[in-house]
C-alpha cells in the first residue's frame, strides 16, 4: 500500500466510526423511515443508508485508491481479494435499532490483498469499541484483550438464534451440554463478545461479508477460530454459515453437532 501507513489508516478508521456513532446517537429521537429488503424481518432504515454514504464519501476523499463494500449497496461487484477494501455494516442489528434502540453496532473492516488488516466493532449506545490491527492485538476501549483460554464445555456460554433450532436439531445437544445460550441479534457484536470472553462460541446460518469481516480480524488477534459450520474457511464472497469460538469450544461444538446428526 502506497503513501499511507497502516497505523494512519487504523487511526482514521477509528475516527470515522466514532463520528458515525455520534451521528446515530444524536438522531435517536428522530422518526425513522423503515423499509424491508429480502423479507419482512430484514429491515433497513434511512440511517443505515446515511451512515453508509458518510463512510463511502469519507473513504473516497481520504483514500481515493481504496475500494468500498457496504451492506446497503456500495461495491457489491468488487473483487474482495484485490487491492485495499473497506467492508462496512453501517448498523448491524437494525431490528434492535428500530425496536429497542440498543444492541446494535457499526462494523468496519479493512482488507489488503485479501488479508484482514483492521477490524472495528462499535456498540454505539454503550460507547464500547472493539478494535484490532493485524499483528498488534485486539482491544476493548483501548484495553488489550488477552488470548482466549479453554474451559469445560459444561461452563460455556453459547450464542445462536433460537429459530435455527427449527432448521438444525443438532443444536439441541449444545443446549443440553453448555451452561447457557444467549442471542443478541448482532453478529459483529457477538463475534466481539467471543473475542473478549463474554461468549465462548457464536453460531449462525446466514451471514453476509459485512456481518463477519471485522469480527474475523478481532478474533484472529486473540487466538480465536472461525470457520463455516461445514468446516470450510470463511470467505467474503457471499452468504455463509459461521462458527466462531475459542479452539476447545470450537471442537466441542462440532463434535456434539456431528454426534447428534448420527442418531
TrEMBL record:
Q: Which reaction does it catalyse?
A: a myo-inositol phosphate + H2O = myo-inositol + phosphate
- Required cofactor(s): Mg(2+)
Q: Does the keyword Hydrolase apply?
A: yes
Which keywords are on file for this protein?
Hydrolase, Magnesium, Metal-binding
| Pfam families named in the record | Inositol_P (PF00459)
- Which InterPro entries does its entry note? Inositol_monoP_metal-BS, Inositol_monophosphatase-like, Inositol_monophosphatase_CS
Q: What PROSITE patterns does this protein map onto?
A: IMP_1, IMP_2
GO biological process per UniProt: inositol metabolic process; phosphatidylinositol phosphate biosynthetic process; signal transduction
Q: Which residues are in coiled coils?
A: none
EC number assigned by the record? 3.1.3.25
Keyword Signal listed: no
The UniProt record gives the binding positions of Mg(2+) as 71, 89, 91-92, 211
* One GO MF term attached to the UniProt entry: inositol monophosphate 1-phosphatase activity
PANTHER family, from UniProt?
INOSITOL MONOPHOSPHATASE, INOSITOL-1-MONOPHOSPHATASE-RELATED
Q: What is this protein called?
A: inositol-phosphate phosphatase
Amino acid at each position: 500500500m502506497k503513501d499511507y501507513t497502516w497505523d494512519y489508516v487504523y487511526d482514521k478508521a477509528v475516527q470515522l466510526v466514532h463520528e458515525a456513532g455520534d451521528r446515530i446517537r444524536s438522531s435517536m429521537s428522530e422518526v425513522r423511515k423503515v423499509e424491508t429488503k429480502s423479507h419482512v424481518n430484514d429491515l433497513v432504515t434511512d440511517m443505515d443508508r446515511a451512515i453508509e454514504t458518510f463512510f463511502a464519501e469519507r473513504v473516497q476523499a481520504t483514500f481515493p485508491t481504496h475500494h468500498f463494500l457496504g451492506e446497503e449497496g456500495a461495491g457489491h461487484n468488487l473483487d474482495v481479494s484485490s487491492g485495499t477494501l473497506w467492508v462496512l455494516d453501517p448498523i448491524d442489528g437494525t431490528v434492535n435499532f428500530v425496536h429497542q434502540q440498543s444492541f446494535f453496532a457499526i462494523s468496519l473492516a479493512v482488507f489488503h490483498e485479501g488479508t484482514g488488516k483492521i477490524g472495528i466493532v462499535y456498540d454505539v449506545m454503550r460507547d464500547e469499541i472493539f478494535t484490532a490491527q493485524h499483528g498488534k492485538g485486539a482491544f476493548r476501549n483501548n484495553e488489550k484483550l488477552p488470548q482466549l483460554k479453554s474451559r469445560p464445555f459444561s461452563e460455556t456460554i453459547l450464542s445462536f438464534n433460537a429459530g435455527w433450532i427449527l432448521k438444525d436439531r443438532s443444536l439441541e445437544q449444545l443446549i443440553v451440554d453448555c451452561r447457557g445460550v444467549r442471542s443478541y441479534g448482532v453478529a459483529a457484536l457477538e463475534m466481539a463478545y467471543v473475542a473478549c470472553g463474554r461468549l465462548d462460541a457464536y453460531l449462525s446460518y446466514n451471514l453476509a461479508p459485512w456481518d463477519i469481516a471485522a469480527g474475523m480480524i478481532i478474533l484472529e488477534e486473540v487466538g480465536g477460530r472461525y470457520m463455516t459450520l461445514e468446516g470450510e474457511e470463511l470467505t467474503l464472497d457471499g452468504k455463509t454459515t459461521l462458527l466462531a469460538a475459542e479452539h476447545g469450544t470450537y471442537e466441542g461444538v462440532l463434535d456434539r453437532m456431528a454426534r447428534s446428526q448420527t442418531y
